[in-house]
Design goal:
- By secondary structure, this protein is mostly helical.
- It contains 13 helices and 2 strands, in the order αααααααβαααβααα.
- The longest helix is centred in the last third of the chain and has 27 residues.
């Protein structure tokens, strides 16, 4: 194993990513065998990808927050809040569809700005901020829509936004998600923004003493997360069209699990955008496989919780060995 880890290809790609790729292939084969071949086919793949798109944007956003050593449990309800308010404005007030999509991103960004300000400038613990943000997002969405569900227009009724997810059986959303992941990877690894965000997670006090404006960069991480959450809302309705008030909590853990499973450390300072995407695909395939086997989504929640615990424990052990 040690020799394998020393191979140039393994060093370049990363052992964690290789393991996740192997897990993806193995899961696909196992689910196919257990369903007697019914799992194999384009329909199952498309269904898994539909789930992976919005979850991928959520995970990309929360990766930046976790990299600072923070956390945000409000991303799921905020995503629903973005979709509900922007969709309601389109249906009830005649807001053009393109403007509604932009509004969704703006709402997500506003939540990110507020959360980031409270954490970085007001020194409110991230856990408290995210819990409050979760409740506020649910309440605002329910009040604005009068507790009514919102159904975005179907493709036949002018809902061109659904082409962002797929055109026929072409998974357009996959290419868009990968494009955004590449942008996030460049920001995280090749720019000053990413370097400072990672520095905050590694040692915030040392970064501050070296002259880094830690409050600004910590705030910016939450803003980036908010923008990604707003985009995630667009892809959620692009896949499922209908959104109900009071929901979204279940996607918090799944998004965080995707990021942590992909190699982003819950202690901060270490982040892997590519690993996050692979982790999201594992979660999405797991969800589809459980449904294909005839189990309810509750089983996925149990398995996702176990994955989070194992991933965090593995990260703790790895850090101890490194130290």
């Amino acid at each position: 194993m040690k020799k394998f880890k020393e191979l140039p290809f393994v060093k370049k790609v990363g052992m964690n990513r290789i393991v996740l790729m192997f897990v993806l292939v193995l899961m696909y084969i196992v689910f196919g065998i257990l369903t007697k071949g019914k799992f194999f086919g384009i329909k199952r793949i498309i269904s898994s990808l539909n789930y992976a798109y919005f979850l991928g944007f959520l995970s990309l956003g929360v990766t930046f927050v976790i990299a600072t050593g923070g956390i945000d449990f409000s991303i799921g309800p905020v995503m629903f809040c973005c979709a509900l308010i922007s969709g309601y404005c389109h249906l009830s007030y005649g807001l053009p569809l393109g403007a509604a999509i932009l509004l969704s991103v703006v709402i997500g960004m506003i939540f990110g700005m507020i959360n980031g300000f409270l954490v970085s400038y007001m020194n409110v613990p991230p856990f408290i901020v995210s819990m409050a943000g979760m409740n506020i997002a649910k309440g605002v969405a329910s009040v604005f829509t009068k507790t009514q569900s919102v159904s975005w227009p179907q493709l036949a009724a002018g809902g061109w936004y659904r082409n962002l997810v797929k055109v026929g059986n072409v998974p357009v959303g996959f290419f868009i998600l990968i494009f955004f992941a590449l942008i996030c990877g460049i920001i995280m690894n090749k720019t000053r923004v990413g370097r400072y965000i990672l520095c905050l997670g590694s040692n915030k006090e040392a970064a501050r003493l070296s002259g880094v404006d830690v409050k600004k960069w910590q705030w910016l991480a939450y803003v980036i997360c908010g923008i990604m959450v707003g985009i995630a809302a667009v892809f959620f309705v692009g896949a499922y069209t209908t959104v109900q008030p009071g929901y979204g909590d279940q996607y918090n853990n799944e998004a965080i699990a995707g990021a942590v499973m992909g190699g982003t450390s819950m202690a901060g300072g270490i982040a892997s955008i590519g690993g996050t995407i692979l982790g999201v695909f594992v979660i999405a395939l797991l969800q589809e496989g459980i449904l294909a086997l005839g189990f309810t989504k509750d089983y996925q929640l149990i398995i996702t919780g176990i994955i989070v615990i194992v991933a965090v424990y593995t990260d703790i052990v790895a850090r101890r060995r490194k130290n």
